[in-house]
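Q: Sequence in, structure out?
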Amino acid sequence: MNTSRYIIEARHLSRTFGIREAVTDVSFCVRRGEIFGLLGPNGAGKTTTIRMLTGQIDPSHGSASVAGFDVVRERTALKECIGVVFEDQNLYERLSAKLNLEFFCWLYRLPKIRVDAVLNLVGLRERAKEPIRNFSSGMKQRIMVARALLHQPRVLFLDEPTRGLDPIAARELRQTIATLSQEGITVLVTTHLMEEADHLCQRVAFLANGRIVANDTPYNLKLAHGKRKLVVVLAADPPADEGSSPFIERMLHIDSHADQALLVQWMSQGRIQSIHSCEATLEEVFVSVAGVCLN
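A: Exactly. Output:
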């Protein structure tokens, strides 16, 4: 039995396709029960990394283990303890949610009693008898997650799980992911949505051009690389014309001597109405660290 506190360990993973190197020397570890984010723009190597970690393709160089199993040498045992959800929603639209899941129980010789359990986990037990074609994209994605949980995996891999979902559906899916983590399931999620990762993940790794350029908690990354800012609301000077706002908003950088002097000046004039801090976003940190825009 694997006693390491790390349930995923990637060691110098690289993968080439012909002459193109998609992933280069990628190393990171994921703790048990953690939600870990692999972040980067499209084409950064996120999906290729997941395909290596789930035993779908071999690394060109390096090694990795998931739940104590080598992803190349122990592929059969690996697949028994992981669940994988990719972007494509390959469900049987005419069947109900319950029949979709029961079919996969039959296919993989799993007890049907698991169906109600996973539907409950993803919050769709009361919709179990409805055909999938009546479901929203967000509900279908949650059924995909439910299907990946039928065999009670220890690790769940989610590749861009909220792509194409509306804000409400995306929020519901994030709540489902958080619930799974509370149940003790380790989740590795790839996304290019930095705000989503900031709220969801305990730790993140930035992937750019196939390489990891940062790996830490969102808070530590923002603290180390973000510019410290203040948003200051001032009384207008000269006073605003009738019908205009009597206040103006200014952004100051805390580490700027010029901005510090400006703040002191405004305080002495009694113009400041309010001040609040404005931390860097994870997207700003990514652009700063990786030198790559996400659009």
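Residues 93-152 form one domain.
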